[in-house]
Fold:
Amino acid sequence: MGDLLKEKLDQLQCHFTWSPQKETIDLDDMVYRLQDAIIFADKYQAASYNQLAFVNCLQGNSEEAIQNLKEAEKILRENHKDAFERNSIITYGNYAWVHYHMGQLDKAQSYLDKLEMICKPLTDGPRYTAMIPEVYGEKGWSLLSSAAPHYEEAMKCFEKALEEDPNNTDWIMGKATVLSRLESFSGTPESREPNQSVNYLQRVLELDPDDSMAMVLLALKLKDEANKLVEQALQKRSTDPYVLRYSAKFYREQGTVEKAINLFKQALELTPHSCFIHHQIGICYKIKLENLGNINPRSPATPQQTELISLCKYHFGKASECRPRSAIRPMLDLAKVYKIDGEYSKAEEIYNNLLKLEDIRPENMQQICFEAGSFKLYQKRSESSAISLFLKGVKIEYDSKDRKKCKKELEKWADNKLPNAPRDSKPFSVRGLLYKMDGNKSKAIECFEKALKIDHENEEYLSALSELRLSD
Structure:
């Protein structure tokens, strides 16, 4: 029975069959974020309980997972009296999986039977699920809250949900949120059209003029009317940690750092385990530190600088410790503060750990390569390690700002080396790669030929040269 049951369970649309699994999400941090969402994000309570059940099951807390699902079911019955069955597909799928993990195969089968009855009139497709807007929408929010590599898939889910239900503010807000995040990454198609999210946020406010989250997210994108939107959102939801945090981010970006810190601290009191807020507070203190000017390595830091360095370390450290897989930017910021304070061994440890990460967004790895490479070159004076890291960054085929920075460092290094090291093949090969990236095939071939004259049997150079000669 177990194998046949598992085949059926794999057909379901629920958290147990979607992309993010135990190896790719920071489970403890996810628990805190979902608990905060249950308390403060009323509209998404059932979805948060559903996702919390999945995380609890991954952590071996199956009984808690069942309780989470009971809460989700209760909320769905209260909020969707006439459409409960449509909205329960994911919850029942999660029930089936949790009972399967508990070894309660008959109970798992009973939920499959319920799903078959619910889905039969809704779809001509699979027996145990129905790809309807409610399923696409909840999947979108789940992927969006899990990890950055899943943002593009989340967007597709919201788009599918909106095809059938174009005026649903939850799905419009979902698409606006994912667009906003993708616009912030350099190298994404969305970053080249940075105001798509504005249209969707404005649409949310047309349909629901009281949506405070849409107000603050829109304010972060707009210049005109932005202050008014933030003030309006804070008046409506002054104790909502999500409104507080994005309002604070707005003021931080406007340069009103003290006001930002005060709002972030208010939000932190409500959601004390928030990595996002700790990171944002750390950024505020880092801005204050930078405003004091560079620290002179030959003389001790002033008491004010020392205090700000300590505050940066504390908040970046708190943001990093709860998300060892996904707090990439807080960790990079922490490494920068260690560099400022001359604690190079601690900075190096952070870079080494970050370079081991897998399944992260390409622009994040390029940023790690650039910052770790710069550290190796300028602080550790390790030229060969730095060049290897810059090369790793440019070889990731993704057009981000940090790829361009890696490329610039390589150009500077190669141009400096070529006249002075005629018997070193590396500068020629680096220049060849850069010419190849720029589409200058003849110059690239010339450089790799020069590199091979010095290092006759280098397979990397031979392969690059062969590829260039065979290309059109």
